[in-house]
What we know:
It is built from twelve helices and ten strands. With about 325 residues, it is an alpha/beta fold. Helix 1 (about 25-35) links the parallel strand 1 and strand 2. The two termini are about 20 Å apart.
Amino acid sequence: VVLVSRDGGDGGDRGDRGDRRQPSDDVWPLAVAMGADEVCLLPDAEAALLELLATCAESSTPRAWVVAVIGGRGGAGASSLAAALAVTAARAGERATFVDADPLSGGADLLFAGEAAAGVRWSDLAATQDRVHPPALRAALPQVTDLAVLSSDRSGWLGVDPADRAAGTACFDVGPEVMTSVLDALGRGSDVVVVDLPRRVDETTRVVLAAADLVLVIAPAEVRAAAATSRLAAAIAPYAADVQLVVRGPAPGGLRAADLAGAVGLPLAGELRPEPGLAGCLERGEPPAGRGVGPLARLCRTLLEQPRPSRSEWEDNSAWLG
């Protein structure tokens, strides 16, 4: 409950808040009697009142199912799996959004041949401070293969000193505040949000891990990959509610998917069998699982059939929004 007061005159006591006017003394007993959580004095608190009204309007909107994908080791195929999940969800008629959270990825829109598509990239959201309207943000993103894609752009590299390029100091890095705001908006404006995570556990990654209903770690069926994946699983476990493993074949030494899952201590979500021609399709700009056939498409359909949180569970587990 919010009590709105429009005091006349000078609005009463200015208190400890400088020049900002405060409600007169007779407003507070009324607020207590009403059980009000907030008291907004107009016109000074107009922005705060609009924020509260927006929150109330959006509170009834079901949130998206958020899936984060991360590689157990470098080159494991996390970006391809994340892109394929988003494509498969879109093919099923869901409002799917793909989020590239790796500032050094080179732009995940390349996975969908969407580098020339008009729309908002991460660099356009660098100064995001105010509430982002959910439908407006998703509509502003590049729309490719029936899904919305938020990725880095490559224009920032033009004219950059080669030394800065090598050091990575010239690329845009997504901060935790911006990521929180963007995930909040996309979560309200989508049915499925798939986030492609970098192999590092910084503040921004922790925001995504906490927001995700499901975190998929993909690893090749190799002994060294098992060692690397074990370290990664231990690093992300404190921040993620549900972490599962996807094992990618072939297995050069005959390592079974179930054995790898047991070694890293993660439940097995699925096994990705070799898909001849996938690398060539990606080079030609064909989105992974875009045709809806093959081992990758079948795996993604299985993964998307996992139970999703109910509305009440979303409301009970929304602390990540801050």
